[in-house]
Amino acid sequence: MAKLYLDIDGVLLTSKNTRAAPGVDAFVAFVTQQFDCYWLTTHCKGDSQSALKYLSQFLLPSTLEQLKDAVHSTNWDALKTEAIELESDFYWVDDNPFQAEIARLTTRQVADRLIVVDLSRPNELFTVQTKLQESLKTPLTSFADHLTAQYGQPDSPSRMAFEEEFAAFKHEAQQH
User: Is pLDDT above 70 for 31?
Assistant: First the structure.
């Protein structure tokens, strides 16, 4: 399952006259069901509770519950990209990424995984949801593509762990 990194202000909530973004309930329902979600916001640096407490002022209890159950915390210092597993299959939804963050994504050739949100555009979260839905439909062309989509690049920790477990499984199967 692809990872999705979520900002709060300017994505789930409006930046000015703070309130729930139009379409946020449907958007949260979609992303929490289709992605492995992570907070990437100043409201959460290592602890999801502060983000949830902040959001509780603006979101419906049912939407808040979905976020509580499905979104993991992250930790970072200066740049949000420090928290992103850049070798994994991911998307990052943010309204105002720093130029240094965009440069880091560009250097790693994953800048296309950043989705910049502008809530002043009508139906913006629906548009973002549609883009994310389309990303889920991208056909895999090989088993290697499948492994990369599921477990990350060949040198990533999750991919190496999978390959070790698979090798052990094959060895055990050959013994029987």
Answer: yes
Asked if 153 and 110 touch (Cβ cutoff 8 Å), the reply is no
Cα angle vertex 31, ends 140, 107, to 5°? Answer: 60
Asked if residues 105 and 81 have their Cβ atoms less than 8 Å apart, the reply is yes
Cα–Cα dist 48/50, whole Å: 6
CA 136 to chain centre: 13
Helix (H, G, I), strand (E, B) or coil at 37: strand
pLDDT in the model for residue 141? 59
Q: How far apart are CA 52 and CA 46, in angstroms?
A: 13
Beta strands, E only, the chain = 3-6, 36-39, 71-72, 90-94, 114-116
* Per-residue confidence band for 154, with pLDDT thresholds at 50, 70 and 90: confident
pTM: 0.77
Write down the pLDDT at residue 138. 61
